[in-house]
Amino acid sequence: MSPLVYHALVGFVVLNAVIGMVTYVTLLERKFAARMQSRIGPYYVGWPHGWLQPIADALKLMMKEDIVPRAADRWVYNLAPLAFLVPCILVFATIPFAPGLGVADLNIGVLFFLAVSALEIVGLFMGGWGSNNKYALLSAMRAVNQIISYDLPFIFAALVPVVLAGSLQLSVIVEAQRAMYGAFVFYPVLGQLAFVAFLVATLAAENRVPFDILEAESELVAGFRVEYSGMKFALIQLGEYAHMIATSFLGALLFLGGWLGPGPAWMGPVWFLLKAVVVFLVVTWVRWSFVRIRVDQILAISWKLLLPATLVLLMATALVVALRSTGGA
Amino acid sequence: MAETTAQQTVEIGYGGTERLVMNMGPQHPSAHGVFRAILTLEGETVVAVDAVIGYLHRCHEKLAENLTYVQYPSIASKTDYVSAMTAELAYVAAVEKVGKIDVPKRAQQLRVLVAELQRIASHCLWLGTWCMDMGGALGGGATIFLYAIRERELVLDLFESLTGARLLYGFHQVGGVRYDVPAGWAERCRQTIDLIARRVDEYEAMLEDNPFFLVRTQGVGVISRELAQDVGVCGPLIRGSGIPYDVRRTEPYSSYQDFDFKVPVETAGDCFARYRVRMVEFRESIKIVRQALDGLAEGPISSRPGVKSVGQVRIPKGEGYTRIEGARGEVGCYLVADGGAKPYRLKWRGASFSNLAVLPYIIPGHKIADVVAIMGSVDPVFGEVDR
Predict the structure, then answer these.
(1) Which of A27, A142, A269, B64 has its CA 20 to 30 A from that of B163?
(2) CA nearest B220: which of B164, B273, B276, B151?
(3) Which chain A residue has its CA at the smallest distance from B131's CA?
(4) Residue A124: inside a domain, yes or no?
């Protein structure tokens, strides 16, 4: 089998797996939120407990009328969902699900992930600008503000395990955690702080409450996607959840030891998925218990607290690594 | 923002060059009904706000002229549909004042009982919707909303077994109340308010231990003591600005003077102060409900016989104004009677109406996100604003 065909095949499988995961992660979140709010959640579509609800939602969105506002910038408006979706899906290319199981285990995997996931802002801004709607425009402005502010702490937090492992390759980072009870979170002080900073920055990068000022439906109705309907709306939702899952995967790889865990080797992907789901649920838990904060407060938290903190953390990590390498070993 | 007239909008000076006029409402997720705010923005900062009301006008005062004293109480509940019991009470109290009709002790106490239960239910809805304004329907705000609605349902269940209705009751009638408490109701009521008292503690723990909630509410939307008096806000708003004004205390009606409760006052005047006032009112209402259940007098529930025809109640010529403390503040009803079975003229004073008037003074200078937080803290009900 030529490498081209092989990669196309793997890409196809991963793409569909991602889309499948997105649909069922929405169900997971809805059920989880329902438990928190003393509700039941989706129940009637599919037995038991609404297992067909995501499928029904997807079908409904596909069959809805596609409305393009007359005053919209048609090219920008129509391209925005794609420009948003592609980077969100593309980051999965570099995620290894088990040793050797993944599309491409790049030797600059972390860098690729961070760079590509930052591209989603282009799609966001296109959507907000192209809709020619004031709510969407304000949301796009907020998006640029927020993503720029939170990408830096996000990157710095993600760099802590990179420095500890001495590599940007995700599989190497995972293997480096084998000595730490299988996870960097157990690295004294640094690991825990970095994980907390990573989770906070993740919330902002994923636009989740308390940092969901882009969507902010009590002020901006639906933010940058207020004019989107039908399949374009579905694509934006798909991209958002794909980004969320990708970030959960990244957290599981960088801090929780990826596929490392007790049991035979085939359990690796299962452990990995479980850890990613834990990260996802922590983020969801925060989402459904906090109120949203204001745009100026969000920026203040990033620039005055999170950015200096992660920067100091990264420098401390580098110091520890440097001392470790010179002081023996 | 110095002296303004009704035509001018209050505007703050701001160094920016480009302004954006954004329309919020009447169809908007946090319009609390049909409020429309035309915001002038400089970036994220609101420099001026134009409040537009009137989308829910249903000619209530004209309706009152065309309906008899027997018919209108159940329509009066539709002015403030979130706190229907107090709206009805304002109307029948006005009729009783003009007609010099006595109300038996038991009926007065039952009125207090339902009014306080209604206050609890109304504050539950306020807490939920306000948190949803700040926290989003897809976030922590929705969680509080669903918790609060869960408790409101319990109170509505009580009302359902008392009157047969869950939102608009028709409980009061001229001369007393229409229904007596059914067997076992008092015990159920006690259990419900005990449960709500515990749940209110939970809300406080969930909100006040949350720094994000505090930064969103403290120092936001400050109504100074002077402004509160100038604009004439009432209810939890004026008590949140340091003025201990409560109609239940300043001009007791329906035997409120027999009850032991305190009027909560906060001095900060911000959203958090208004929140604190209402949270204490939850507990005070629970206290009053307990007292009312304990000391319920025996006797008739109405000084007039049961209703046989809609034209049965006739009020001699005269006029009068009554005011009561609704969940949102002072609800007033001015009635002119001409001796017939219908009022000659009726004027409603809605608490939400005068409370909303403060918005153009306090919103400019805040961010867009604060607009909805401030509006939610005012707790407007548009049935009462527009009538």
Answers:
(1) B64
(2) B273
(3) A291
(4) yes
